[in-house]
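We append the chain.
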Amino acid sequence: GGRANRGSIARDGRPLAEAKPERLQKVLAQAGIGSRREMEEWIAAGRISVNGMAAHLGQSVVPTDKIKIGGRLVNVRFTTARTPRVVMYHKPEGEIVSRDDPEGRPSVFNALPRIRGGRWIAVGRLDFNTSGLLLFTTSGELANKLTHPSSELVRDYAVRVLGELTLEAQQQLLSGIELEDGPASFASLADAGGEGANHWYRVTLFEGRNREVRRMIEAVGCTVSRLIRVRYGPFSLPPQLKRGRVHELDEAEVKALMRELEKMIKPAEIPQEGA
């Protein structure tokens, strides 16, 4: 296939010859419209059309196709020739990981570089009063892979704890405690020093449930007074990256990351319901 496109030029002036036909649900997921599974559900429900005809599951599309969702034309970009962009952001406390907040609190998205024809997608979230490493990418598919439970990416936090975390409590946190949404445990917990009532620890987790670190510490009778995420999978918070600043990965780093993820997540592990 693809030959028919040989002479045509994309809107941004690049030849389209390198864009091979791609699965419709993949193209829509890459555009950040939703997960592949959601896109498959929308296709099955008849919400998506290609060149005026109802789309069907498993359909492939090329850049010249007109894709509509609920009758509205969507501008999708074929990413075959482009590497997704990835940025690391040092989130300060007091910013929300959401584009719009009814309370009008500052959003992390305001600090990110502006991009044409795409949008930043947050990889997971950090609480309003949690600071530290937050990742963003332009690829919905990459964001899904980085947050998918089967990728088991390690999250490393510096936690300042108010109250005494006894050895018994530390052991409980490592062997597992019951939270309202199921058992949780730290993969590691190390003393990181500190004076007075507050004490620092380094903890690691292999999942990212809502407010998980805070809830675990509260479950053993202590309080988290500060929480900083210092690592997420292969990414560590660069010591020179000041709070509120962004560092973008170069193309080679993004490609290396994508190769690593391909090895970690076997396609069979991602449930393909409805396919």
Remarks:
- The two ends are 24 Å apart (CA to CA).
- The helical segments are 24-30, 36-44, 140-147, 167-175, 212-219, 251-264.
